[in-house]
Amino acid sequence: MNGPTGEDRRPGPTARSGSPGPAAGGRKHAPTAEGRKLSRSFSWLALLGTLLVIAGIIGLVYTGVATLTSMLLFGWLLLIGGIVGLAHAIESRGTNYFWLGVVVAALNLAAGVVVIRHPEGTAEALTMFAALLFLTGGVFRLVGSVVVRGPQMGWTLLQGAFGLLLGLLVLFDWPHSSLYVLGCFFSLALLFDGLGLIAIGIGGRRIVSMVSDRLDGPGPTTDSSPQAPEDGKK
């Protein structure tokens, strides 16, 4: 029968499942804005990594300047750390750690002033300390690999021999080696940190672009409306 009740069962034009509402449109643009923010942040990371790589390459070319620069940065870090530590010690006066904080802050301040005023002597002292570290580390690796005889014995022997050789080279050329050893290490650290930031920035931008393309892409088509039953089957 084509009565009023039969007509009421027929779906109207507003029952189409594929027509997006205003809420769906709002959800579509939100991931795009967040993706742009993330992509911009990863771009800044890549730019910072590029600057670090350039600074590292310049430091490897001019190792003497890099050594003095690293010593001055080290001195200013000690000085700023001493000032911050002294401020914290003053805030915590009356506690058991007050005098310990004051002593540590005073030592940092004194070391920072010495390093800033005598960067060449500080570089010589730190180069000697680095050479002794290489020597002791190489000897311990060599002896440990021979005594333990583990599965990585070959690599441990190679690392110990390299550390021992590097320590001897730095020590035999001291104090002239203080002009380039610390600067070379500082420049290599900048170079590898910059390469890591560039890799993170480029990889992050690719991931954000892939996710944004998937979110903004067309979804499955569900615009087909249910067919009305035939008159003979009502």
Description:
- The protein contains 7 helices and no strands.
- The protein is mainly α and 234 residues long.
- Helix 2 packs antiparallel against helix 7 (181-216) and helix 5 (119-148) runs antiparallel to helix 6 (153-172).
- It is extended, with a radius of gyration of 34 Å.
- The protein starts with a helix and ends in an 18-residue tail after the last helix.
- Mean pLDDT is 76; it is low at 1-8 and 12-30.
Give a quick precis of the structure.
This protein is mainly α. The protein has helices spanning 4-9, 22-61, 63-91, 98-117, 119-148, 153-172, 181-216.
Key features?
single chain, 234 residues, mainly alpha, extended, disordered N terminus
Instruction: State which percent range the strand residues make up.
Output: under 5%
Regions with little confidence, pLDDT below 50 for 5+ residues: 1-8, 12-30
Largest sheet: none
Distance between the termini: 6 Å
Helix content: over 70%
Average per-residue pLDDT, rounded, comes to: 76
Radius of gyration (Å) = 34 Å
Q: Tell me, what's the shape?
A: extended
Topology pattern, helix = H, strand = E: HHHHHHH
- Alpha-beta classification: mainly alpha
Report the count of strand segments.
0
Q: Treating each run of at least 4 consecutive H or I residues as one helix, how many helices? A: 7
